[in-house]
Amino acid sequence: MPDTKFPLFAAPPPLTGISFQDDDPLDPPPPAAATGGGAANGGLVLKAQPEFPALGRGASRDKFAVLVDATAPSDVARSPLDLVTVLDVSGSMQGLKLQLVKRAMCFVVNQLGPADRLSVVTFSGLARRVTRLARMSGAGKAAAKLAVESLDVEWTGTNIGDGLRVGADVLSSRRQKNAVAAMILLSDGQDTVVGPYAYTRVLPPALASASAGTNYASLVPPAFAHAAASCAAPIHTFGFGADHDPAAMHTVAAGTGGTFSFVKDEAAVQDAFARCVGGLLSVAVQDARLAVLCLHRGVRVQEVSSGAYGSSVAADGRSATIDAGELYDGERRRFLVLVYVPRARFTEEVTRLVKVTCAYRDAATGQAARAAAPAVVIQRPLELEHMPAPAIEVERERVRLAAAEGIAAAREAADGGQHAGAARILDARLRELERSAPGAAGDDPTCEAIKEELRDLSTRVGDRNEYQQTGRACLLAGMSAHAQQRAAGVEIVTSSPATVGKATAARAYLTPKMEEMVELSRETSRKRRGSSSQQPSRQDAIKQIKQDLIEL
């Protein structure tokens, strides 16, 4: 029975067939006139740019690149958030780890508004819902913090799948739904049901059958799979410490449209949560779908490079679509559309290649909206003496995609034991980037962040032990960030002053709202530490965190 003194507290649910249906009611939506019927501060900005401004009339070209660039509006009203946090409380989380997660959770609670709703789920051998999906009003925040402070470890295994199933049931059984929803999953260990260290003798029969093999995709609740017709919500995963299973966490994130972050420096878990929540609390655009229509009768779409985002090309090549999903405030998505350009007629001075449009929903108002880019047109001179340099924006996207492909290839090589070969792949991508026009300039923030990432990853894959400790997780976090074009994170304290505290996989995609939230997290940490320069003992650190939680 639910605790009557603290109504947010919930009794452990049964293993399956859960239907909670006790979420707090939402405020009624404001009238359409009050919302303005559209984006609060402008709409999505859509651009399309050809690889080259001109092509000789007598020439044709395969895989001529058109860069499609969609940018969400900035400083707009946001939609309230339904957030479920699924937290590992297995025995390995005891002590400082759990106290750090509690403090990070209290920071998250403080950032949520009265229209946002939060539910906390924990798991060890089995999962339980600690708090129902409740609004974060003053009383709601106090009860949520009290629930978080009450968490304790349980020595019964690590059942990530059950944690996700209970979290999924919380969101799936909502009586009312905020427009934006997400799950956060944090674990520091190996799944003991479907992972390589699975054991089944102490598990109920209903769960024992799930332990065969290492099918990490089975951890993803079916309704949350990214391939589902209507994905319920992304699951953003956080591998906490050096002993988690990065393959499992990456699979869950990639399978739901979420991001995977690696938090090796356990003290940085609050910053990692802050980066994620800063995005979730600034969703500006939802259900964005880009449409590419060929204009000239001879132009055909040949290929679309869309990373983790679904895309399709019509059988006749005359059109293509890209499902870009949600965009945070000020966030960008870039895609390369490769088209065939035919030879021009003798009198044809220009060729109209494609027209790009985007249909989307304003997250704050729920109103449908559209954006369109000017038609992509190239000049067709009779003779082209010198081929012009490719557009710098197109080249930047090319080298980003090449780096992402190199990271994925290096991961495959290192997983196969070819550590030296993995390092060579990354070094080769780095040299290509340094020779490219945007990379050689040295002043492009995106390219500089990717250069730093490739250098760091190369040092982590060449040695087998380092790869197992940090390299695999860093590679997967980088793959997640590049595929989603969204800031994931790698939080590692290194011996190099130049790289301490940097999250290279995230920097190329950080939005202003994410940066603001991370800075707020760091400011609260600085205030907490005060002016003392003495390094506390582990016991003193735990005592200080407990005192901070009481004050929160």
UniProtKB/TrEMBL annotation:
| Chain intervals for the UniProt region annotation (Disordered) | 1-39, 517-546
PROSITE patterns recorded:
VWFA (PS50234)
Family annotation (InterPro entries): CLCR, Vwaint_dom, VWF_A, vWFA_dom_sf
Under the heading Gene3D superfamilies, the entry gives: von Willebrand factor, type A domain (3.40.50.410)
According to the entry, every stretch annotated as the VWFA domain falls at 82-277
PANTHER family recorded for this chain?
A: CALCIUM-ACTIVATED CHLORIDE CHANNEL REGULATOR, ZINC FINGER (C3HC4-TYPE RING FINGER) FAMILY PROTEIN
Official protein name in the record: VWFA domain-containing protein
- Lineage, please? Eukaryota, Viridiplantae, Streptophyta, Embryophyta, Tracheophyta
